[in-house]
Amino acid sequence: MFKKILIANRGEIALRIIRACHELGIETVAVYSSADELSLHVRFADEAVCIGPPPGSESYMNIPSILSAAELTNSDAIHPGYGFLAENPEFAQICTDNDFVFIGPPAETILSMGEKATAKKSMNEAGVPVIPGSTGVISSVGEAQKIASEIGFPVMLKASAGGGGRGMRIVKETDQLERAFVTASSEAQSAFNNGDLYLEKYVEKSRHIEIQILADRHGNVIHFGERECSIQRRHQKLIEESPSPIIDEELRQKIGSAAVQGAASIGYVGLGTVEFLFDSKSKEFYFMEMNTRIQVEHPVTEMVMGKDLVKMQIRLAVGEEIPSYLAQQKLRGHAMECRINAEDPSNDFIPSPAKVEEFYAPGGNGVRMDSHVYAGYEISPHYDSLIGKLIVHSEDRNTTINRMQRALEETIIEGPKTTIPFHQAIMRNSDFQAGNFHTGFLETFVYEE
Ligand code: MV4
Question: Looking at 185, 201, 217, which one is the last position of a domain?
Answer without folding.
Answer: 201
